[in-house]
Write a structure and sequence with these properties.
Belongs to the transferase hexapeptide repeat family. The protein is built from 5 helices and 15 strands. It is an alpha/beta fold and about 190 residues long. A 6-stranded mixed β-sheet has the order 3-6-9-12-14-15. A 5-stranded parallel β-sheet has the order 1-4-7-10-13. A 4-stranded parallel β-sheet has the order 2-5-8-11, with no helix packed on it.
């Protein structure tokens, strides 16, 4: 897929997930989550080629400009969207599937200083509410929802809803609306 096709796909994904998006030009110019992921693709390419310092420098400049920190070693799938963005941190060994959405203040962080896999893996179609923290080398299964301010430290199967501190998983209810789950008062800490 060409870089321009990826950009168009990212803009379409943002417009699909954000009801406030008025048009593609507004989204392309004014959405820091998109700017961060576009910069990440450049920084990740540098990282994979062994240009570690320029990749880290690029990620820090992007952090300064957008308020979103994505380590260039993180692996991120297609149609990834960060809504509002400020305060998002994605660690070096994090793996993010396709069609994932994060709100502001989300951390995909580590819990140890060990080398190797130390950040979370999010399956395809996962949505993460504002302020949630997913810590350590945990795996969150596809199509799962993580409520606002939840703290996830254990694996969760696909189609789960995770809420609380520490987060507890329950199965998603058939036909459950992800926006309703992410915004419902009973899921906010």
């Amino acid at each position: 897929m060409s870089p321009f096709a990826r950009i168009r796909e990212d803009i379409a994904a943002a417009r699909l997930r954000d009801p406030a998006a008025r048009g593609p030009l507004e989204v392309a110019l004014l959405y820091p989550g998109l700017h961060a992921i576009w910069a990440h693709r450049v920084n990740a390419a540098l990282w994979r080629r062994g240009a570690r310092f320029p990749a880290r420098l690029g990620s820090q400049v992007t952090r300064w400009l957008t308020g979103i920190e994505i380590h260039p070693g993180a692996t991120i799938g297609r149609r990834f969207f960060i809504d509002h963005g400020s305060g998002v941190v994605i660690g070096e060994t994090a793996e993010i599937g396709d069609d994932v959405m994060l709100y502001h203040g989300v951390t995909l962080g580590g819990r140890t200083r060990d080398t190797g896999k130390r950040h979370p893996t999010l399956g395809d179609g996962v949505a993460v509410g504002a302020g949630a923290k997913i810590l350590g080398p945990v795996t969150v299964g596809a199509r799962s929802l993580i409520g606002a301010n939840a703290v996830v430290t254990k694996d969760a199967p696909a189609d789960s809803v995770l809420v609380g501190v520490p987060a507890r998983a329950r199965a998603r209810i058939s036909g459950e609306d992800s926006r309703a789950v992410l915004m419902a008062p009973e899921y906010v800490i």
